[in-house]
Amino acid sequence: MTPPIAILGAGPSGLTLGRLLQVANIPFVIFEQDESAIAAATVATGRGGALDIHADSGQIALKEAGLLDQFKSIARYDATITVANAKGKVYLKVEHEGGDNDKPEIDRRDLRALLVNSIPANRVQWGFKVQSVQKETDGSMSIHFQDGRIESGFKLVVGADGMWSKVRSLVTSAKPQYSGIYYLTTAIQPESPFHSSVVSLAGNGLYMAIGDGKQIVILKLGDGSYYIGFGLRLPENWSSEQAALIKDSSALRQWLLSDGFADWPEAHTDVIRHSDGDFYVWPLYAMPTESLSWQTVPGVTLIGDAAHVTTPFVGEGVNCALYDSLRLAQQIIKHGLDDLHRAVSEYEASMLPRGIDLIERSTKSGELYFASDAPKGWLKTFAGIDIA
Q: Which of 95, 293, 341, 354 is the least crowded, having the fewest Cβ atoms under 10 Å away?
């Protein structure tokens, strides 16, 4: 029998919604384009990074899902935050001791694994790449996949399928807009001879050097490796024009050394020089805030990046996504499967302003990160620190 609710995407928001519905005994199915849970873990590893899960949003969702204790058992509470300028002068260092951190970190892949393992295996259908979502003459929803398969008869399709959601066009014609910024990300492994030098910069957490409209990010992961990111202002089509360069990791490192960060100090350029592995190319997009004003459309809704993708400069994207899942699940439980339109309408009434607020704050933070005099403006605005 076809379950009443289909969720597109097995990322944090889609999986959290699924888990919450599972706890409430509400049938659902998740369709994910990754071929398997193993492939999903590989993708998450390749894109790297860690997520800080906030006590007043993301952790609330995990608590309602019955997963907070498991999360706490693998989260890291001792992460440090260090902010320096392009020359390496440190202006801010935050250290957490004695469990005083209400924003503990977890590797992206570990959070996804925690959520995947909390849902019965038959509830997640792997290897389903969506082509379109359509409303049928009887008012039900159908999902059309790129390999020709069609699944139909759903009362509600939830787009948890990220920035280029296949559901979004049913509620708005707006599309994410390019921010002007790319991140090129790679890693430094524990066995690297340079590993100890990175430890001296980032310690147990995050080291961020910003200035001259550029950024270097170093972030410790649970296995002792470090996620390395280089932020630059580049044209939107840079990745297509530089496809050959991107495929050659050695050449891309040389390009970063000669064209991107040539005038930065050796402590920073050594991070480029000694990083290892392939690069993941990440252009940043955000939804225009004026587009987050649609009227509820029967049979569909959006959560997470599908609804309000933005740049990552306030560190709240995943928390907003998890909270979306919680709020939608609460409304579905409250109104039941026979009044899903009202459930979605009440969910969207709170989600849309929350998404607008996130986009606006992240855009402002990003402007200060990549300003010519950074980190001056960012430190004053977000940390209350005045520097000359």
A: 293
CA pair distance 325, 321, nearest whole angstrom: 6
Supply the CATH number for residue 23's domain. 3.50.50.60
Predicted local confidence at residue 176, as pLDDT = 98
Residue 277: per-residue pLDDT: 87
- Which residues lie closer than 8 Å to 342 by C-beta, 6 or more apart? 331, 335
- pLDDT (0 to 100) of residue 42: 55
CA distance 128 to 132: 12
CATH number for the domain that contains residue 233: 3.30.9.30
CA–CA gap between residue 9 and residue 124 (Å, rounded): 9
Predicted pLDDT at 71: 97
Q: What's the rounded Cα separation, in Å, for the pair 349 and 378?
A: 31
Report the C-alpha gap between 150 and 143 in whole angstroms.
Answer: 6
Amino acid in the structure at residue 61: A
Structure tokens at 114: 């925690």
Residue 46 pLDDT: 44
Same domain? 52 vs 182: no
In this structure, the strands spanning 105-107 and 226-233 are unpaired
Place of tokens 């989260």: 75
- Tally Cβ neighbours within 10 Å of residue 98: 7
Give the integer Cα–Cα distance in Å for 80 and 219. 10
Residue 329: the pLDDT is: 98
Q: Which residues of 117-142 are buried (b: 16+ CB within 10 A; e: fewer)?
A: ebbeeebbebebebeebeeeeeebbb
On the 0-12 / 13-18 / 19+ scale of CB atoms within 10 A, 388 is exposed
d(CA 104, CA 75): 6
pTM: 0.95
Structure tokens given for 51 = 């997520």
The CA distance from 217 to 224, in Å, is 16
CA separation for the pair 281, 237 (Å, rounded): 12
Question: Which residues of the chain are modeled with pLDDT < 70?
Answer: 39-48, 97-100
- What pLDDT, in 10s, does the model give residues 79-127? 899 999 999 999 999 987 656 689 999 999 999 999 999 999 999 999 9
Range of the domain at 125: 5-65+107-176+288-368
